[in-house]
Every structure is written in C-alpha cells, then in structure tokens.
Amino acid sequence: MKKILLLAAMFGLAATLTTKGAEAKENWDTLCVKCHGAEGKGDTKMGAKLGCKDMTDAKVQAEIKDDAAFKALKEGLKSADDKTLMKPFDTLSDDEIKALVAYVRTLKK
C-alpha cells in the first residue's frame, strides 16, 4: 500500500512539473517571443533594437543569475538613460516567474 501511495505521489509531482513547464512555455510564447524570438536568440527586429542577449549562449546564461532574472521579469528593465527595455510582467505570479526563468535555462545550447 505504501508503494502505491508513493507511486501516486510521484506521478502527481511529475504531472505538476509538466503542467508548470507547459505554462512557462506558453508564457514565453505569449510574452517573450516578440523580442527574444522563439529560440531565445534575440534575433527579432524588436530584439535587435533593444539589444536582447542570445539566451541560447551558455556564457550569456552564466552571467545572468536566477534572482536577477526573476527581478527583471517582476520589475522590468531600464537602460542607463532610463529607457524601458522590458516592461514588468506584473500579471504573472511569483511561481509563474520562477517557472519562466527555469524555462529560459532550457534554451541554453
């Protein structure tokens, strides 16, 4: 009986993680692709204009810590001259932002 409960709990956790991953991908497609591109290379017209970094580059990803990425999504980003580079995603919950940061990590090649 304990084994059955343990297996059920494991399948439930796997389903939850899969759902969160799917939601993160959906949020990426809805909120991020316009600038960062589907693959995260930042090679869109808007991405080039704003200087988006190539999120598939392992060196770029290493430079960006999770807490800084979370803060950028939560609060937005501004340039040194106070130009808005990225609007805050204030419609996302903290868990959704964390899942989106985790999704961005999967873009690394």
Computed over alpha carbons, the radius of gyration is: 16 Å
**Name of the level-1 CATH class:** Mainly Alpha
Percentage of residues in helical conformation: 55-70%
The CATH topology is: Cytochrome Bc1 Complex, Chain D, domain 2
Quickly count the helices: 5
CATH architecture grouping: Orthogonal Bundle
- Compressed to H and E, one letter per element, the order equals HHHHEEH
The overall pLDDT, averaged over residues, is 86
Strand fraction: under 5%
Domain count: the total is 1
Question: N- to C-terminal separation?
Answer: 43 Å
Order of strands in the sheet with most strands: 1-2
- CATH superfamily heading: Cytochrome c-like domain
Verbal overview:
The chain is mainly alpha-helical. The chain has a single domain, classed as Orthogonal Bundle (Cytochrome Bc1 Complex, Chain D, domain 2). Helix 1 crosses helix 5 and helix 4 packs across helix 5.
